[in-house]
Specification:
Helices cover about 50% and strands about 10% of the residues. The chain is α/β, with parallel strands linked by helices and about 350 residues long. The two termini are about 40 Å apart. Mean pLDDT is about 85; it is low at about 330-335.
Length: about 350
């Protein structure tokens, strides 16, 4: 039974960057993984694309033939993919039981009220895929209460529309220290409880409108709390512990059982994933990326320098003992790598 992540979210939330990083992380822990691009507007993928919707239909063709703008063309493309689902099914069949990451378009109407993407997901379920939706959002929204409330509504609507196991993820959490200070600790925003504490901040954000919209703000907060569905995970895509924590949460949501190929090697990250070991909760995230980021960064740099020194000493001993070993030298040269390489678009 194959497993898959459906990566959705507004433009700029980091969907393609996440797919690239998670593909590398899964490869590092011995989990066979493929990435499928469902975004016809994404013509510069940084990850190895196992299946690309642009092989079926391109945005330029639709805009020229149907006289549509970019947004309308993306909706049209997803409708075409829904109608020609056999093409997608045939491509997925070639991937076997690989864990699949679906990189989806960023138009919010696709995962709030347009039916095509949801219908495609339901047909994937009928093929036997165990699906988990990952709804990514830039953590910048935490800096403005109005943005945060809007995101809660968008996340709630997407959860009701998709009707699948669902995780909301605050991305780029490592950038939070560069933004204005948050009005509350990080756990307030991720646990989505006691939202009435936001009301004074909402009123202060737009004093001239507070009298008109105060009751609307109260009604929205009450709606979100009544459903009690929305919560957030956090992600710093270049941090291994953060990636591991999110993948474990995704595995729990989708009921993932480790594949037969896993466990063949015993690196620390493979052992951690097999044993379900994670020591990072939201208070650790707060400390790592907000309260003591500079201290952690410095400790990390010292650790990398020490690893590099040890690797160079091991390579030197190997050369002295055996007259040189290029393989050992190559291995030592890569020890300082973080494990995830992000290729950012120009």
């Amino acid at each position: 039974m194959p497993f898959a992540q459906l990566v959705i979210g507004p433009p700029g939330s980091g969907k393609s960057t996440y797919c690239n990083g998670m593909h590398q992380f899964m490869s590092a822990i011995g989990r066979k993984c493929s990435v499928v691009n469902l975004d016809p507007a994404n013509d510069r993928t940084s990850y190895p694309c196992a299946l690309d919707v642009r092989a079926l239909i391109t945005l330029d063709e639709i805009m020229a033939d149907e006289e549509l703008g970019p947004n309308g063309a993306v909706l049209y493309a997803l409708e075409e993919l829904e109608n020609d689902f056999e093409w997608l099914e045939a491509g997925l069949r070639q991937l076997g039981d690989d864990y699949v990451l679906f990189d989806c378009p960023g138009q919010v109407e696709l995962f709030t009220h347009h039916a095509s993407l949801r219908n495609i997901f339901l047909r994937l379920q009928k093929l036997g895929y165990r699906l988990v939706v990952l709804h990514l959002t830039d953590s910048y929204i935490l800096t403005l209460p109005s943005l945060y409330i809007s995101t809660l509504l968008l996340s709630l609507r997407a959860m009701l529309q998709m009707d699948l196991p669902h995780l909301n993820v605050l991305t780029k959490i490592d950038n939070l220290s560069t933004y204005p200070p948050l009005p509350f600790n990080l756990d307030f925003f991720t646990e989505v409880q006691d939202l009435h504490y936001l009301l004074p901040a909402l009123a202060a954000e737009a004093p001239s409108l507070s009298s008109k919209f105060s009751r609307l703000n109260e009604a929205i907060i009450e709606l979100v709390e009544d459903f009690s569905l929305v919560g957030f995970e956090t992600l710093a895509v270049e941090d291994k512990r953060s990636m591991m924590k999110l993948l474990q949460a995704t595995d729990r949501a989708g009921g993932y059982a480790f594949g037969a190929a896993e466990g063949a090697n015993d690196t620390v990250w493979q052992v951690a994933m097999r044993e379900g070991v994670t020591t990072m909760d939201i208070r650790d995230v707060q400390e790592r990326w907000l309260d003591a980021k500079e201290d952690y960064d410095e400790a990390e740099r010292r650790g990398w320098a020490e690893e590099k020194r040890r690797a160079e000493e091991a390579a030197k001993r190997a050369r002295d003992a055996g007259g040189g070993d290029d393989d050992v030298e190559d291995l030592g040269a890569g020890v300082t790598d973080s494990g995830i390489k992000i290729v950012r678009k120009a």
